[in-house]
Amino acid sequence: MNCAAIMVAPGGRLVYSTCTFSPEENELQVKGFLEKYPDFKLLEIKREGISPGRGEWVGDPFLNKTARIWPHLSRGEGQFAALLQKERSGERKEFPQFASIEPKQEKLLPFWDFCSEVGITSPSGRLFLKENDLFLLPEGLPVALQEIEPVRTGLFVGELCHDRFLPSHPLALALERQEVQRQLELPVDSYEVLKYLKGDTLLANEHSVAGNGWLLVTTNGFPLGWAKRIGNLIKNYYPPSWRMR
What is the pTM of this model? Predict the structure, then answer.
């Protein structure tokens, strides 16, 4: 609960719940929490089938605002819950904007060439380059909790390597059909869609795809992933770890 208390925003709520009858793990824990964090208040839970807590068991009737679910009165095996709310300070804390170095436009040329090739309009947001990985960040992203190393810094768009751009699978899944002009639509019940999901190479002369280059593979209008036509071959870029066996 100590870690959770730090992460709750002013006005935010925190629910502490257990599946034990023990007052030491229930009301007493809430009492200790409120003493340590006076900026939190206990809210009463009023629901049918829910009984008040037993504050008298720990010498504090105020804790009757907590909730107990008794197995002989309601469905369940016996639960406890407390609803806590962090007080509003009246001050709105402003965080600085995400401090990133905007990539140089010449570095992004392969990405813009890719967008032009497949017919993607300019993405809304901020492009952020981390080594060779390109990410798309929301506008106005604040720098909050800088001690936390994010698993994903926005949407992973793809990888820039010298004069080439390799689009990511998350980018394919984030796009909608109307946002991409160059597509390869495969019928959902066809053998071709199974071949793609297995990672097989497709033949261009079996599909109405004009010219070489990247394609967004779709079925029933939903994106599956990327492919690239080279001559009569459509190379498969479906992630190896996702492929059917």
Answer: 0.59
Distance CA 44, CA 56 (A): 16
- Which of 12, 4, 77 is closest to 43 using CA atoms? 12
Complete DSSP assignment for 49-77 = T-EE--GGGGT-GGGGGSEEE-TTTSSSS
Domain 2-86 CATH assignment equals 3.40.50.720: no
DSSP class of 122: P
DSSP conformation class of 142: B
Q: Which architecture does CATH list for 177-242?
A: Roll (3.10)
User: Rounded to an integer, what distance in angstroms lies between the CA atom of residue 138 and that of residue 161?
Assistant: 24
Cα 71 to chain centroid distance, Å, stands at 37
Strands (E), the chain: 13-18, 40-43, 51-52, 67-69, 79-86, 126-130, 133-137, 155-161, 164-167, 183-185, 202-203, 213-219, 222-230, 233-236
What is the per-residue pLDDT for 143?
Answer: 54
The answer to whether the CB of 197 falls within 8 A of the CB of 225 is: no
Please give the Cα distance from 128 to 160 (Å, whole number): 12
Residue bearing tokens 């946002």: 179
Strands 213-219 and 183-185: parallel
Query: What was the pLDDT predicted at 145?
Result: 41
Parse the chain into domains and list their residue ranges.
2-86, 109-167, 177-242
The span from the CA of 203 to the CA of 235, in Å, is 9
- In this prediction, residue 46 has a pLDDT band, given cuts at 50, 70 and 90, of confident
Residues designated catalytic: 19
Query: Residue 1 pLDDT more than 70?
Result: yes
